[in-house]
Amino acid sequence: MIQRWACPPALRLLGPVAIALAIGLHAAPAFPQAAVVEVPLAGPALVHAQAAFSAYDRKDYPAAISEIREALRQRPDAARLKRLLVYALAANGQFDDAAVAAKDLVAAGDQDPALLAELDRLEGRLPTALAPDQPVAPAYASADEAYRAYAKGNYASAVKAAQKALRAEPANTNYRRLLDNARAALNAPKPSPAYLPAQEAYAAMAAKDYDRAAASAGRAVQLAPASREYRLLLVQALSQTDDLEAAISAADAALRENGPDSRLYAARGYAEQRVGRPAAAAADFTLALANQPEATEERSLRLALADAALAAKDPARALAVLIPDAAESSYDVASRRGFALLALDRPAEALEALKVTAASADTPEARGRIMSGEISALSKLGEQEQAQSLFKSALDSGAFSGTSPVEVAYMALAAGDDQEAARSFAAAKSEGTLPARANFDAAYAAVRLWENDKAISYFKDGLDAASAGKMPLDPQARFNVRRQISDMDRRWGGSVSVNYGATGVMPGTSATTIAPAPIQGQKVTDRIAQAGTEIYWRPPQIGYRDGSIFELFARTFDTISDENGGATGIGTMQAYTGARWKPFGRINFVLEASRLWGIGSHTHNDYLLRAAYSTGQGTDLRVDVPSWFMWQIYGEADRYFETPQTLFSFEARSGRSYNVGEFADGLVLTPFVALGTGYDSLLKTSASLGAGPGVSARLWFNSDTYHAPRSYLDISVQYRVQLAGGSQARGVFANITLAF
After folding, report:
1. In angstroms, rounded to a whole number, what is the distance separating the alpha carbons of residues 709 and 208?
2. Can you say whether residue 687 is alpha, beta or left, with left for phi > 0 and alpha for psi between -120 and 50 degrees?
3. Helix, strand, coil: what percent of the chain each, to 5?
4. Residue of 723, 704, 702, 721 whose CA lies nearest to 712
5. 513 pLDDT band (50/70/90 cuts)?
6. Lowest mean pLDDT: which of 225-229, 507-511, 564-568, 669-673?
């Protein structure tokens, strides 16, 4: 039965000396063997401990208990404070709590004789040592002085006072222990000045106060720059504050000044990965693996390297680094192998690996990720219906409840469900979780759904993110996005052109540009010059639909020169009104129907059907290279019904374009060779074929932050020799066009 007394007589007799014995001033090896020697109290912990001692001396046990608990919160490793708590609880009459606290200490390995004796007394196994009125021991004052000096860190004074107490009571083993501890502390090597700020940093990290941890770790590194531990601590603390660039710089400095270190390479790699530089992260994880990491860290480093390699678009490397773990069916390994195989375009193997790991995907996020991979693999295998079915069933069953909207959006894209992709991208945007690069994927999904305004908004957000440095975007990719915006938000346009050459074989350049008008009834080969003007309008909603274009237009043509002496001027002005349609978004094929209105006396009314096709490469402005290969094919067929007249023209060009922006911004010079043929059913010799060299100069202009140049001035001159057919195939052909 626990004895109920206000204060243990031994403690009442010895006072602070008993406290000193209770907090265990054992002889111990010298610093820095911290696992054996308890680090001296410092900072707030020391302040609260001293307050606890004072409260205990004045018998204010509740205050002592409170101060001890606060000191222990600062220094939960301080066994001395825990022993003092046992005595304070007992002195306050909280015998059960004191016994529990003492048992916890003993269970943790504390075998201090004084503590064991106190536990025995609390459990009723030992009688009280002294009667309440027993006089104070003669060595009390010296022992009390020794303890107080020790508690303040004045170890020299503690040694002198303990020696005095021991001379008074040579057989007292507690005084002997007090002296040994005071001597050990006095002779121990002093900790580095960096030790205390480092301890503060560790404590702050444990408390998740990362800003304070980074500041304390920085002081520790300044005081002990050779310490790898403190360097690593600083990198980890800065990473936790999300100041990743500072963490990377700190790791750079540590590796430069202290040499290779697996842990520092790994810490820098994780920071590089979070900042969006996966290739640099992969290099760091490789170095970490090469510099003798702890055996327990090797697997984690391989997984981290696989993640970085996948993010860096290097799936072969990811697959190779997982070879030591290839036999595992765990989610960690098999999922990474599956996605690496998927990126290597080995969908059948990827699907097998993902199915293996599906059973071990134990969180909604993991299951959603595996489902995403399976959908992509099925799509690549051509099993689109199965992919769509899997996606829809998973979506309807709530299998993606733990999956982010962005991941659901990409699964929808893989399954071919643009509607769900658009909804999920919009949800991610509204909650602020849409990654910068995902803006472009969201934009193209909106393009396919004919939601042009939404698409343009996403495109602009993506360009803004790239300008802010939130994602890499090379100059040509940026230009291509701006070109897409220019095509999508165009509502009207026009062109003015002057063409010179033989009628019926004048070269065209695009299925959406105007071609020269025929001269009705011409029977001989004439060299003429014609001027044309066109204005067009794209109706809302139907004007642009994922590359399909519908336009209404009005144009005029008139002959301004005729070497054969034919009519020129206002009398030859012919007007056209009509519509043209580019039905296929990815194929530049145009159908046109128009009504001809005779304005001049040498013109007439008629109906025209026109079909044109063009294709090529390198015909737009390039901003990433100074020169590039260019080729283009253009063909056109025209049928006038009331005349009747049939025309056909074809031209193929091949050359090299040069960006000569040093003369004028947006100026492109293109030398080329051309092959052209023409057919005019009204000519005596209806067909002709010619070829020869040429050169064109095009000046692009009218651009802004979000738009590629929307206008150009093009001048083209070529000379052809006759290869076959009529003589209209030879000679000079020229064209000047202003498109806006």
Report:
1. 52
2. beta
3. 50, 20, 30
4. 702
5. low
6. 507-511
